[in-house]
Amino acid sequence: MTHREHKSVVIVGGGQAGLSVSYYLSREGLDHVILERHQKFHSWRVNRWDTFCLVTPNWQCRLPDFPYQGTDPEGFMVKDEITDYLDAFAETFNPPIVENCEVTKITKRAGGGYLVDSSQGNYSTDQVVIATGGYDNPIVPPYAKNLDPSIVQMHSVDYRRPEQMPEGGTLVVGTGQSGVQLMEDMHLKGRNVHLAVGPAPRSPRMYRGRDATDWLYEMGHYHMTIDKHPNPEHAVSKTNHYMTGRDGGHEIDLRKFANEGVSLYGSVSGMEGTKVQFLPDLETNLDDADDSYVGIRKVIDDYIAKHNIDAPIEPAFEKLWQPEQEITEIDCEKEGITSILWAIGFRPNYGWIEVDVFDDLGRPVYQRGVCKEEGFYFIGLGWLNTWGSGRFLGIDEDSRYLVDAIANKAKANLRAVS
Q1: pLDDT, mean of each 10-residue run, the chain (418 residues)
Q2: CATH match for 5-136+348-417 among 3.90.180.10, 3.50.50.60, 2.130.10.120, 3.40.50.720
Q3: Residues 6+ apart with CB under 8 A from 9
């Protein structure tokens, strides 16, 4: 019979979400353990490029009882500052974490609770919190294998600096937050950069005297819960608006980069040999991103007008560049492109969870992180409850809510056996 150590709660994942839950469990006096596949805060510490920085201002860093305490609340912490902040939070309590411990299976236990198997021992537990996030498997489309092997392919998770890429041009695929920032990272180093533009929206950075996120926070946008959202399916599935916190923060207008020599194409649709095919959607994607940008400006304008706020006037938006034609195929050899940098996201891996907490598409089903299977929870995912869920801004509220549910169930369990 397999020996199992018993813990009231097992948390899988040692990032900011898992440790935030641990913080409140510790305050409740509930015994628990955190099982982390690598080191705590691994994604921040390892899976980021050298010039990585926050996209949201530092004041939004609000871990439990540990808000940002630096001297630049409107600035954007760089990679090492972020990990220092996280490490300092962990030092405020003694999280019971087991590092380099991969969870291999979770099943239901006869009579209630769960069995957790891991590379460093097995556990029985009354309750489980999944805090692994959604960044397990880097996405690379199947047709990538058709590309000539002389062209180097890399995913954004492995990118650190422009010097990693071979001499010659690089085609960056994807215009979410990572894609546009990596494009800029290489462009600023004088590299020959090509960009496949997807349907991601963009946002202003500073607008009418303040960071756009400051306005949106004040307007209550970040307090809207998913159950009150007019289009929850769209909210959960859509890509984040792109901008950057680099060098004090600025917006990213891809038309500006086109004027500076970055070659823009539509969405990649296929690859064969040295050739890459694109959909004829570049102009549509640029226009849609600008519509999002202008829409955010308008809601801020309306708020300012409604409340008679004294704020500086901004010039009207103008398109800086228009594509002369839609290019639907290029030959990398002729264009001097020697590498592809994939920045089209990740997929979660829940294959090790053998509990009925998923829908037909393999997505976890919950209400504010609480599953129908008693004592099973998720945290750290986008729109778990609000826009800030999965981000520094909302993790305190989410973790407090889950721990309240965990503590209430633990008390009910005690009453049931007494």
Answers
A1: 89 98 98 98 96 97 96 97 98 97 97 96 98 93 98 98 98 96 98 97 97 96 89 82 96 98 98 98 98 98 98 96 96 98 95 97 95 98 90 96 97 79
A2: 3.50.50.60
A3: 25, 30, 31, 32, 33, 125, 126, 127, 128, 129, 406
